[in-house]
Amino acid sequence: MVSIYLLSRLILSSSTCVLAPEAMEGPYYINNEMIRNNVTEGQLGVPLTLDIAVIDVTTCEPMEDVLVEIWAANATGIYSGYSAMIGGKPPSRGDGHHRQPASQPLSRNETFLRGGAPTSSDGVVELVTVYPGFYAGRTAHIHTMIHMNWERSDNGTFVSTSGTVLHIGQFFFQETWNDKVYATSPYIENNNKRTHNNEDRQMEDSEDADGNSAILDISAAGEDLTEGLVGFVTVVVNPRASYQITNNNYLNSTNSSS
To answer: Residue 94: helix, strand or coil by DSSP?
Structure first.
């Protein structure tokens, strides 16, 4: 297995110092999630290891100790903590495609596929999750948020609004990988209408943005999908940027959504 240090060198050497495309936060964010590298919590699906490098656009150097947070739907298209899904086709360019959907009320005490961890001195963090499922209006994607000068709580969570949010984005997948994964269990049990990459406005906007690609570079961890996949991506951010979190749902002090 290649070490995360060597992976970080590979990612950094092959990347260009161009800002990553921003994306909307979406309606399923939860503030103050747990600090952890593995967010799986026993969720079924194709294992996915993400190696994420964060680069300062002003220096083209790695950024140490910025917290990279991720959240995503599970194999059947459900976000932890939420039972109601908005779904539907995202707004077109002429309809205000950057409009942030309203937050949904939390309904369950769940934390699966949510959390984050800080980058190393090489600007890299490794996070373990599962390949996300689709739901109406959205293709496979993973949300991400990058926090600088963040604070750790005594209960193992971080305070989402304690520092500065440098980036709000989404990671996407090549359709060939989506096809392979979605032909396996438990993804075949997803009853949502599948949205493909070319039907997802958020992906189209991210790819049209004048910045780095938001598509993960995926490699198979073994000969079979059950052995998992590894995804690589470089996120170039502006350390002077500052974005606001719009969702007002929080993880409570007992590590459950409330």
So the answer is: helix
